[in-house]
């Protein structure tokens, strides 16, 4: 007989069963950034950023994937956050929000900040959109 254990988010900061997580950032299904892994932590803080030129932000999709890096496994997905830029940047050019992790074996929230800086350019229609 074992006493009941708390269920839900882990309140421990370190432990043997906690994930070694890292994030990947994809823009239009192309890998643009990967953070370093945070070893066995229930509340990892990545504080990492990247800057990318986007030909057409109105049709762009940014996907943030949180993965678990463990020995002898194929980095299972803890959660995914897909962001359609036209919806996120609808009223502001700088957004910071909490998003729930969905579609993986884990749970939790991730805080994502996006900053849009415009560049004056005229591209022909055939150069806009995805590759």
From TrEMBL:
Database matches in PROSITE patterns: C2
Pfam entry (one): C2
CDD domains hit by this protein: C2B_Tricalbin-like (cd04052)
UniProtKB keywords: Endoplasmic reticulum, Membrane, Repeat, Transmembrane, Transmembrane helix
InterPro entries: C2_dom, C2_domain_sf, C2B_Tricalbin
Subcellular location, record wording: Endoplasmic reticulum membrane
Presence of keyword Membrane: yes
Span of domain C2: 1-99
Name the record gives this protein: C2 domain-containing protein
SUPFAM superfamilies in alphabetical order: C2 domain (Calcium/lipid-binding domain, CaLB) (SSF49562)
